[in-house]
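For the sake of transparency, this paper describes our internal protein records without simplification. The record that follows is passed on verbatim for readers who wish to inspect the format:
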Amino acid sequence: MENERDSKVKEAVPNYQRKYTYTDYLQWDDDIRWELIDGVPYMMSAPTVRHQEILGNLYLILGNFLKGKSCKVYLAPFDVRLNAFSKDDTVVQPDIQVICDKSIMMKTGCTGAPDMVIEILSPSSGRMDRKLKYDKYQQAGVREYWIVDPEQKLLQVGILSNNEYITRIYDENDTAPVKVLDGFEVNLVDVFSED
């Protein structure tokens, strides 16, 4: 029996099959946001207001710190082709990414692993962000992966060490160091602020 996701994908993706590449992804309707993981398409739902508030807070904090520096911060929609030089079947759109290596940039995103990725959980993205994307970012070599939980007001930080994430949890009263940006830390009160 066909599940709801497959049914929706069949409606939106011409000639629906089970595996796709970035070339296929480029042909899909731009009015719908997609991610492609191991050749399987996933439609992205619209973010909540709270998600967008936290996204804005993080973008401002990072953007202000990076002003005049070589690393840059980018917001979704922004295509990150994690395995562009092999299968090219994984394209994600992290909420925020920090890129220090200009050589991976392309017109609509990047080819390869950003230095840092931030995903803000929503009810529909929790499993994907905590498992599928976690594994993909780790395999691709994303050096720092933040998962922000707006409901619990928690931050899970994964720092890549020997090809595996070493994870630490912070709460809204903590200050989290950003390992990929030497000397920088984020006061999480400012991230979870609703003002």
Remarks:
- The two ends are 47 Å apart (CA to CA).
- Helices lie at 4-12, 22-25, 49-66, 126-140, 188-192.
- The CA atoms of residues 35 and 92 lie 5 Å apart.
- The chain has a mean pLDDT of 90.
